């Protein structure tokens, strides 16, 4: 059971990492053939690989964790992505985003009590 929770939390974290890598890859501009470069660069390729790993980890986690609990936890991806966007992508966070993330975290806590 503990291993399933570990896989669930790692899959949530890796989803945030993958989404951040997709944003980094989307920013890359080479000048020529921009369409292909947006889909075939290193950050995007790594993100696709991470999403495959996330799928496998999620399937393993769902063996022991109820589906409704697992998907309530996946809403924490919003929090992970916001943290990565602030520290890695240097994007600004406003008060509405902080309030929204607080409501999400509060909701996850209430749901799982």
Domain count: 1
The level of helicity is: over 70%
**Rg to the nearest angstrom?**
16 Å
* Unreliable stretches covering 5 or more consecutive residues: none
Computed structural class: mainly alpha
Average pLDDT, rounded to a whole number, is: 92
Q: Could you tell me how far the N terminus lies from the C terminus, measured between alpha carbons in angstroms?
A: 18 Å
Features:
113 residues; mainly alpha; 6 helices; 0% strand
What does this structure look like?
This protein has 113 residues and is mostly helical. The chain has one domain (2-112). It is built from 6 helices and no strands. The longest helix has 26 residues, at 2-27. The protein is flat, with a radius of gyration of 16 Å. The mean pLDDT is 92.
Task: Give a summary of the structure in a few sentences.
The protein is an all-alpha fold. The chain has helices spanning 2-27, 34-39, 42-61, 67-73, 77-87, 95-112.
Question: What's the helix and strand layout?
Answer:
Layout: H1 2-27, H2 34-39, H3 42-61, H4 67-73, H5 77-87, H6 95-112
């Amino acid at each position: 059971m503990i291993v399933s929770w570990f896989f669930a939390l790692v899959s949530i974290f890796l989803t945030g990492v993958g989404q951040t890598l997709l944003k980094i890859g989307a920013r890359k501009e080479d000048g020529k053939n921009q369409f292909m470069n947006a889909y075939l660069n290193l950050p995007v390729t790594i993100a696709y690989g991470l999403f495959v790993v996330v799928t496998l980890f999620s399937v393993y986690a769902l063996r022991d964790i109820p589906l409704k609990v697992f998907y309530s936890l996946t809403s924490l991806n919003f929090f992970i992505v916001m943290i990565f966007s602030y520290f890695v992508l240097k994007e600004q966070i406003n008060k509405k985003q902080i309030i929204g993330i607080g409501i999400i975290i509060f909701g996850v806590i209430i749901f799982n009590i």
